[in-house]
Every structure is written in C-alpha cells, then in structure tokens.
Amino acid sequence: MATFLYKLGRLAFRRRHFAALIWVALLTLAGVGAASAPVAGSSSFSIPGTEAQKAFDLLESRFPGMSADGATARVVFKAPAGEKMADKDNKATVEQAVKVLGTGSEVTSVTDPFKAHAVSKDGTVAYASVKYDVSGMELKDASKDALKAAAEDARHSGLTVEVGGDALQATPETGSSEVIGIAIAAVVLVITFGSLIAAGLPLLTALVGVGIGVSTITALASVLDLGSTTSTLAMMIGLAVGIDYALFIVSRYRAELAEGREREEAAGRAVGTAGSAVVFAGLTVVIALVGLSVVNIPMLTKMGVAAAGTVAIAVLIALTMIPALLGYAGRRVQPAGQKSRLLGGGRAAKKAGKPNMGTRWASFVVRRPLAVLLLGVVGLGAAAVPAASLQLGLPDDGSQPTSTTQRRAYDLLSEGFGPGFNGPLMVVVDAKASDAPKTAFSTVHDEIADLKGVVSVSPAAPNKAGDTAMITVIPDSKPSSVTTEDLVHTIRGAGGDIKAETDATVLVTGSTAMNIDFSQKLNDALIPYLALVVGLAFLLLIVVFRSILVPLKAALGFLLSVMAALGAVVAVFQWGWLSGLMGVEETGPIMSMMPIFMVGVVFGLAMDYEVFLVTRMREAFVHGEKPGQAIVTGFKHGARVVTAAAVIMIAVFSGFIGSSESMIKMIGFGLAVAVFFDAFVVRMALVPAVLALLGKRAWWLPKWLDRVLPNVDVEGEGLRALDEKAREGDDDNRKLVGV
C-alpha cells in the first residue's frame, strides 16, 4: 500500500492542476445540487419491530385520513392573576383564537377548550389542540405565521399564551462558538507548523471536504429523508478528521524535507507513510459509523452513513489534494523545525542534541511505566463513576431552554393539568379478532383506569369499522420519568390477560411510548454493536501492527476513555455539574442514542491516534530499535502532531456545545471530553506504559497468522526497498564510468 500511495502522492504533486480541478469541480457540483434541492426537514422517526411502531402503523391503516404523523400544536392559555378562563372576556378571546386557527389551509381540526373539557380544575389554564395534515417540517410558513399571530392576538387581551408541540419546530443553531472552535484550530496549526501557509492547508482541505459532504447530504436530503441533524453531525465529524488527516500528511512532508529530500519525493513519501496511517484510521471511523446500521433504526443508520461518507471524502482529499496544494506552495512550506520569515524570521531548526517534549515525556514513562499506568487507570475510573447512575431518555419540550415558547407551554400544562399531561399514552385496541369489540374496549378502559399511576383515561374512540379503538391515558408523572416507563410496561403486561379474555390485542404508542421503545432498542443493540465494531477494527489493527497485544491494548484503552466520557456527560447533563457553564438550562435523562453513538464515533477517533502514534513506534522497531527506544522514537516524531490534532478536534467538537439543539450540544460535549481522555490519558500515557511493560512481547504474532495476513506495509518498507534499488543503480552507473 505504501508504494501505491507513494506513487499517488507524486502524481498528485506533479499533476496538481488536474487534482485541484477535480475537487473544485466536485465542490461546485455539490454546491449547485444543494442550492437547487428542496429544504430538508427532520427525518421521519420510525423504530421497526417495536410495539409503539406497530401501533402507529395500525392507526395509519385503521384510521385513514387521520394523519397520524401530522404536526400538532397546543395553544395554552393562562388567565391573569385573580381571574378564571371562564370569565366572559377571557372565554371570548379563546373562542376567537380557536375560530382563527381553524381557518388554516393545512389544519385538519381544532378543539375548543370549553367543549373538550380542556380547562384545569382551578379554572386558570386551558388549551386548544391544533392538528395539521403535514409534518412539522413540511408545514408552510404561512401556517406557522398564522399560529404565531393567533397566539400574539390573544396575548393583547392580557392572557398568557404559549405554543407547544412540533408545529413550531425550530432549525438548530450552533452559534458563534463553532466559529471560535475553527479559529482555535487555526491558531494551533500556526503554532505547530510555524507557518501561515502550512497551517492554512489542513483548514482549506477540511473545509472543501466538509463542503462537498454536507452539500451532497443537503442535495439528497429530500430524496433520502435526511434530517437537518444529519448534516450537522457530518459537519462536526468531517471537519475534525479532515483537519487531522491533512495535519499528519503535511507534518510528515515537512519531516521528509528536513531529511534533505526533493519536494516531489517528500510529498510522495509523506502520502506513502502518513497516508497509509490515514487510510487505516479513516477505515476504523467508517466501520464504526456504518456499523450503526446494526441497530436497525433508520434515522441512526442515515446519520452514520452520511457521516462516514464525509470521513471517506476527508481521506481522499488528504491523499490527493494535500500533495497538489503542497506543489502550489513550493518553498513557502519549509522543512520541520524551520519557521516562516513572518513568524520566526526564517530561523533554522534548534540543535538536534536537545530532546523535544515528546522525547522527554516518553523517556519518563518508559522509566516508570507501572506508576503511570496505575495513575491513568485510577483517574479514568474515577471519571467514569457517574456513568453508573446513567438514565436514558429522549429530549422533549421540557428540556428546551426556558426562553422558548415550547418550554413555557410545557410548564403551563404541567402547572394546570399535572406533569403527565405533556406525555399522554395512546392505547390502541385491535378487536378485529374479537367477537364482542365493544366489550373489549370497555374491558381495556376499566383495567387501565384501575392501574396505579393513572390520572385519567378517556372513553374508547372506535374507528368507522368498529374493530379498532384509541384510548388516551394520562400518567401522574412526567414523560421522561422512570415511573411513566413502568406504567407503559404495566399496561403492556395487562394486555396479555386481556387478549386471553377478549381476543383483543392491546398496544401502547404515542411519543412517550416511542421514546421508551427507542431507548430499549438502543440498549439491546449496544453489546452486539460493540462486538461488531471492535471486532472488525481489532482484525484491521492486527493487519496494520502485525501484533495481537497492541490491538487488544487499543480496544481496552478505548473502553476506559468512553466510560470516563460518559461519566462526564452524566455529571453535567444529568447531575447538573457545571451546567451553567455549558448552557444546560434543564438537567434530565441522557439522550438514548448517546452511549451507542459515542461508542461508534469515539472508537473510530481513538483508533486514529492509536494508528498515527503506534505506527511510528512500529516503524522504529521494525528498523532495528529496541522496544523502549522505539517508544521514545515514536513520541519524538508523533507526540507533537498528535497533541495538536487532539487539541484541534477538541476545539471543533467544543464549538458545537453552543448549539440550541440539546442533542447536538450533548454530542459535542461528549466527543470533546472523550477525545481529551483518549488522546492525553490513554494514548499519551497508558499506551507507552503498557508497551514498555510488554517489551518485545507487544509485537508478537503467531507465525501461522503472520503467513496468512496480507502485508499492507504501513511502515513504508517498500519505499526503503526503492531506496536500495536506487542506490544500487547509482553504484552500477559509477562502475560503468570508472568512478
């Protein structure tokens, strides 16, 4: 592989105009496609194989025209202090609002609070339910404006009016912190390279790669039902790995120049060596992201595949566009150790006798491996402690900032009708196989009404055929609570006895039940997913490192870092530690997909640093150095670059903490913390400590396995063979001329 990539790097350097033109053309094509594509909304939410999804599908078929997936809005009214909603003026205001709301072209129904008994017991709070025939993101701006206008008109009369539901679903905003993250990355690159030109190359290529990836996602969003969150996550991961991959190749290019190679040759060797590590690091990330499809949740699968595509683009750009741009830069990118005239006056490198920080740190770890290992493991273990109290759920309006009308509507409904009113359960009774459907409906109603934790149960509402009915159940606890989850399981458990008695099937659905089933499905898939991803990457790393223990150590180190990161997420988003600093206004359960998503993404990113750092150690060991010295050599050449890459990735991920979307905020924080733990504790401390303790055994591989495995030549042995042939050719030429 090293030889092939070496030739590819030299070709891209020589044919730089052609290579650059291809990527510019792809960026233009993707941009035109994105600009002409319809605006994407949030992707449809379905969980195949769950009871909640079966009930939802049953409603679609048995209640045609009800638009089960249509947007909903709850317009909540609260009377001024000392007044009631039934007072003449207040009632007239509400009735006028209901009348105006019912005139919308996309509105299918509006309920009058006074006719639907939607007034609180103390008479101070009431709500009107608005149902639309399209989803929230498909809703026309005119319908949204009419909803806002009706609420604003009602406010003028002195009522407090807020709007909940998904009809006013907002597009997530990342805020200025994302730009700050990129700015920090730029500063780190300038410090690392000592050159504005060299620092600008990784940023430029990363932006091109993300531009192509995100534009392609935007262009295909409507066709493939990709939500806005998909492109945000692809941007987050693509930007981070794009900068890192380019950073490693530019750094190796400067190191090759420092050894006296010509620029084209240096570009080829940089792509042949560091590029090989980029390919395998990218493969681990792609495997981890595409592996999310085993969960069998379409939304998660699309997010993973889209992000994996952006990573693949980042790899290809690093292998082809970077050497092309290095060709354009010429002598403005200087050898390692030299700075540009602007930043360092063209000073030459420091004396070779003085070891750098990476060398000094690695020497320290090699001398005291056991102490470093114990300290690192204990520290990560302490950080992981909060993960033991992890509670999973999905964000609802209760997790929105208090500045939003959705959150204020949620609070008003909780105040007037109880916390469970924000998460009603919809019980679907399929009595098609029953001889007495009406009796079955009545039995289900009475059974549920007698359950503990139920505030109210609505009368059964059958369809036209009379074989299926809907029953709305209001719990006495909030949607995200464990008590509500227990109630859902209790109702489903009672459904078995009811079926035996009446031949009617009882199914529980609704947003709350969907969230519960979603969390359960993710929990069930976590172990198989972990086994699949870690197993495939383990095999890949065996091929790369020609070792059994090095990949095993890499996987165990990853588990430590991801558990510590989950602990930090729980401490901030569930316990509330430093929540004000992170902009977390409401603590609660951790997003259901967070553990499995972190396992996938963090594993891929963790293997990046493993490959880049340990490959240099392996290279030194293969070329004859002792194990301890090989560790020091690996750190001498790789520690500074890996440190810079980690800081850049942390900065990029931290930029998304400013997002208004709670899911993006949590993922950004979790990934930033995970990279910190993995890069600076696991890879920089635990990895050299373990390798020092293992010695030569770290690179052991059974002979039979060594014969079977393909030789991918990540260390560049093929390039060394080219050097030897070139030297032999020179010797032969000298003999011919009599030298």
Which descriptors apply to this entry?
739 residues; alpha+beta; five-stranded antiparallel beta sheet; four-stranded antiparallel beta sheet; 7% strand
Could you explain how this protein is built, in words?
63% of the residues lie in helices and 7% in strands. It is of the alpha+beta class and 739 residues long.
Number of helical elements: 23
Average pLDDT value?
A: 84
Structural class computed from helices and strand pairing: alpha+beta
**Secondary structure: helix percent:** 55-70%
Radius of gyration, in Å, reads 30 Å
Q: State the distance separating the first and last CA atoms.
A: 37 Å
Q: How would you sum up the major sheet?
A: 5 strands, antiparallel
Number of strands: 11
- Poorly predicted tracts of residues: none
Q: Strand percentage, roughly?
A: 5-15%
Shape: elongated
Q: What layout of secondary structure does this protein have?
A:
Elements (H helix, E strand, L loop, with lengths): L1 H13 L1 H21 L14 H12 L9 E7 L9 H14 L5 E4 L14 E8 L8 H15 L4 E6 L11 H17 L2 H29 L3 H31 L4 H28 L7 H32 L11 H4 L12 H11 L1 H16 L7 E2 L11 H13 L7 E6 L6 H13 L4 E4 L3 E2 L5 E8 L6 H21 L2 E5 L1 H35 L3 H26 L15 E2 L2 H29 L4 H28 L7 H33 L8 H6 L8 H20 L3
Parallel strand pairs: 5-11
Antiparallel strand pairs: 1-3, 1-4, 2-3, 6-9, 6-10, 7-9, 8-9
